[in-house]
Amino acid sequence: MERSQNKVCGKEKSMNVEEPLFFAACDCEEDISQGKPIRGRTKARSLSASPGPGSSKEFRRTRSMHGPCPVTTFGPKACMLQNPKAIMHIQDPASQLLTWNKPPKSVLVIKKVRDASLLQPFKELCVFLTEQKNMIVYVEKKVLEDPAIVNDENFGPVKKKFCTFREDFDDISNQIDFIICLGGDGTLLYASSLFQDSVPPVMAFHLGSLGFLTPFSFDNFQTQVTQVIEGNAALVLRSRLKVKVHKEHKEKKTIVQNGVEENGLMVNQQEKEHGKLTKYQVLNEVVVDRGPSSYLSNVDVFLDGHLITTVQGDGVIVSTPTGSTAYAAAAGASMIHPNVPAIMITPICPHSLSFRPIVVPAGVELKIMLSPDARNTAWVSFDGRKRQEVCHGDSISITTSCYPVPSICFRDPVNDWFDSLAECLHWNVRKKQNHFTGDEEEEY
C-alpha cells in the first residue's frame, strides 16, 4: 500500500491515498483533503451535527477546535524559539521566547499624535536608535509634521535619516523588523492595524493614560531596547480575529424591450446584485451596536452555520482574550488570559436577564447578520475604527486569525498580566478584614 507524507499545520502526517478524509486545517485559506481509511471505511469529522439517517451529505471539518496554528514568524527576521517538547501547536507560555534569524536593522516607532508629553521621549529614543544602534527608523509622516519637531533645529540631522510612510498608502509590512510604541493601549491597537498579515514583535512603553497592554517603563529604555535587539525577551502571542464583512448592494439596471417605453416608464427592470467583501485583522473586539437608532438592535448570531441566538439589546461584542479586559469587561464579561485560545461573545445591555457572556473555542466561525424582522440597521466597528453600517443581507464572519501580535513581555506572560490587572484595573483591591485576637475568637 502506497503511503505519502503531507504537512498539516506545520506537522507531518503519514496518510494513505486511497480514500478521502478531511483534516483540520490552518486558518490560512488552505483546504487540505488528503486521507486514509479507518477500519475499512471513511469517516467524516465535523464541528457540525452529524448527518441524519439515510443522508449522504458529508460535513467537512475546516478548523481545529483549538483554533488555527499561529504563524510563529514575525516580520522579516523574528521568530519564536521553538520548544521541541511542545504538544501539538500549543506551547507553555513560559517557553515563548523571541529569537532572530538575522540581527534586526529596521524599527518602526509609533508615537501617539498630538501629545506634547511624548516629544522628549520620542526624540531620545530616535537618537539612541539611529546614532548608537545604527538602526533604520520608520516614522509615520504625520508624526514629523508636529510643529515642535519641525521647529527643533537640533533634531533636524536625526530627522533626515528617518524613513516615512502614510497609513493606507504605503506598504511597510516587509520592511519592519520590530516595533516600538510610545503611548497607551491605542498605540498597540494602531500598530496591529498596520499589519494585516505577519506582525513584527511589538515593544510597548507605558506613556499613556491606561497602559494595560504596555508593560515597559521608559526610565531605563536603553537597556530594555538593547535586550530586545539581542533577542533576550519573552513573548505573549495575542491572538487576533480575522473578520470578513460582506455587504450586499442592489442596483437597478434598466432594460428596454425592443426599444419601446410604456407609459413613460422602462419595462423589464432587472436587479443586479453586487457583493463587496472587506477584510480586517482585529486585536481587541468587533462591536455590533444599534448606532443612532432608538430601537433595540436585533441581530442573529450563527456558530459554524447554526443559529445559536438572536441578540436583542444595545448590541454584541465579539472579543479576543486581549479584548476581554477592554469593552467586554466593562459590559460584565470575564477576563481571559491572552494565552487561552478562545473567542468571547458578550451582549451589551441585553433585553433578557438570562443572556450572559459566553466563551467559545478559538477554532469556530461566527457569523452575524441583521435579523429579517429587525426594525432598523446596525453598525459595526473594529477595534473602535472603520465604523460602518450593517443593512439587511449583509454578513460579518469572524474567526481566529493565524497571525497573532507578538507582544514583548517585561517579565513573562503570567506576571505581566496579573501586574496589569492590579495596577491598571485595581483588580481585587479592597480593604482587608482585621484578624481576630484570642479573646474575640472565644466570644464569636
Automatic annotation (TrEMBL):
The keyword Kinase applies. Keywords: ATP-binding, Kinase, Metal-binding, NAD, NADP, Nucleotide-binding, Phosphoprotein, Transferase. GO terms for cellular component: cytosol. Pfam families: NAD_kinase, NAD_kinase_C. Its EC number is 2.7.1.23. InterPro entries: ATP-NAD_kinase_N (IPR017438), ATP-NAD_kinase_PpnK-typ_C (IPR017437), NAD/diacylglycerol_kinase_sf (IPR016064), NADK (IPR002504). PANTHER family: NAD KINASE (PTHR20275). This is NAD kinase. The lineage of its organism: Eukaryota, Metazoa, Chordata, Craniata, Vertebrata.
